[in-house]
């Protein structure tokens, strides 16, 4: 029996709440946070400031930002029990599975974890934002058979992560490049992981459960895993000369090109324009790296074939080359996404639960009607 109702597959076009955090105009390629274009955030701000602005719902003043930065630095260290658990993870663990498990375990160690008051959600958010980078770096180090590097309080959030990851202090230029990459990924409206975090928190569950749910949603290659798959694609292509034939064959076979197209944008993803410029700078420093040259050829071919259908490269297309230059293994690209998006997830949960309503969508029933139970011996 099919009910006479319309279905919005994938919830496309369905509005379930209001938000003043992020605005997207996919037709014109516009992305703003608190009304400010993403290009201005990337050019003038920092990950710390954008994170606080989203938590507050407004631009912070200098004192507020200084206090928030001090809070983050004071909360960077993770408990010794969590470090031991990370060291005990099986070798070869999928990084996103390891991250999901670590964040869930962190909730067990937080005496405030079950407190869902606005004040508690905000305090836990600060700890999560601060410690996400420490957890990811610790997982990568442990999985590589290296000692876990303790955080430093004299480095920026981005610079400290690269220090904990690589064991050496990054240059000012490297830290700023990673800072910009984080800014570009902090929030992106009602994507699958943000919606999942809100859905979990709408039941009045705790922040750690909401963030663990979001990490699980981000793990999929149709969401957070695309940038890793872009690098796999570049290795398959091998050289710029082979790029056009590779892409044309994929398109002729109606296969998906990773890092190309977006559910929302029918124009260039504005984040990809920012990141492309920085990827170009990295490539120029290295004498036009092979990866960037391949990406240039792929973009040219994709725009020629698909541009009239509104399909262009997205933010995942260039992010992998930037991360690779910073010493980040491709298996950790999606955890890096979570490192940035944790701020958006927390801000969205805080915003939604301030006027909470349990999410309970309905579905259209397409099964049988007037059926009756058949005893086992009578079934065919």
TrEMBL record:
Q: What is the taxonomic lineage of the source species? A: Bacteria, Thermotogati, Deinococcota, Deinococci, Deinococcales
Q: Which reaction does it catalyse?
A: oxaloacetate + acetyl-CoA + H2O = citrate + CoA + H(+)
**Keyword annotations from UniProtKB, A to Z:** Transferase, Tricarboxylic acid cycle
Query: Does the record carry Transmembrane helix as a key word?
Result: no
Whether Transferase counts among this entry's keywords is yes
InterPro entries assigned:
2-MeCitrate/Citrate_synth_II, Citrate_synth-like_lrg_a-sub, Citrate_synth-like_sm_a-sub, Citrate_synthase, Citrate_synthase_AS, Citrate_synthase_bac-typ, Citrate_synthase_sf
Q: Which family does it belong to?
A: Belongs to the citrate synthase family.
| Annotated protein name in UniProt | Citrate synthase
Pfam hit, one: Citrate_synt
Q: In which pathway does it act?
A: Carbohydrate metabolism; tricarboxylic acid cycle
């Amino acid at each position: 029996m099919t009910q006479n109702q319309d279905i919005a597959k994938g919830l496309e076009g369905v509005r379930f709440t209001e938000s003043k955090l992020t605005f997207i105009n996919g037709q014109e390629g516009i992305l703003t946070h608190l009304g400010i274009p993403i290009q201005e955030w990337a050019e003038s701000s920092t990950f710390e400031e954008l994170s606080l602005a989203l938590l507050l719902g407004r631009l912070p003043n200098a004192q507020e930002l200084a206090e928030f930065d001090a809070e983050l630095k004071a909360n960077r260290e993770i408990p010794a029990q969590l470090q031991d658990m990370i060291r005990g993870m099986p070798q070869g663990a999928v990084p996103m599975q390891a991250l999901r498990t670590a964040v869930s375990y962190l909730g067990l160690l937080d005496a405030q974890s079950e407190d869902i008051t606005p004040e508690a959600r905000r305090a836990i958010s600060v700890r999560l934002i601060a410690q996400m980078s420490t957890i990811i770096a610790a997982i990568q180090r442990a999985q590589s058979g290296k000692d876990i590097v303790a955080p430093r309080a004299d480095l920026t959030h981005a610079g400290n992560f690269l220090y904990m990851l690589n064991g050496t202090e990054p240059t000012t230029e490297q830290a700023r490049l990673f800072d910009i990459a984080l800014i570009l990924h902090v929030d992106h409206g009602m994507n699958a992981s943000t919606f999942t975090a809100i859905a979990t928190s709408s039941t009045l569950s705790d922040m750690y459960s909401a963030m663990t749910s979001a990490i699980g949603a981000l793990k999929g290659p149709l969401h957070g895993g695309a940038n890793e798959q872009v690098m796999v694609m570049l290795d398959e292509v091998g050289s710029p000369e082979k790029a056009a034939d590779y892409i044309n064959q994929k398109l002729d076979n109606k296969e998906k090109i990773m890092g190309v197209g977006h559910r929302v944008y029918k124009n260039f993803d504005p984040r990809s324009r920012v990141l492309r410029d920085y990827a170009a700078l990295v490539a120029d420093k290295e004498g036009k790296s092979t990866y960037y040259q391949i990406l240039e050829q792929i973009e040219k071919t994709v725009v020629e074939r698909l541009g009239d259908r509104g399909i262009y490269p997205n933010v995942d297309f260039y992010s992998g080359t930037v991360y690779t230059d910073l010493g980040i293994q491709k298996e950790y690209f999606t955890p890096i996404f979570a490192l940035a998006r944790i701020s958006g997830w927390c801000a969205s949960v805080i915003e939604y639960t301030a006027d909470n309503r349990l999410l309970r969508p309905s579905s259209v029933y397409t099964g049988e009607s007037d059926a009756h139970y058949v005893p086992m011996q009578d079934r065919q």
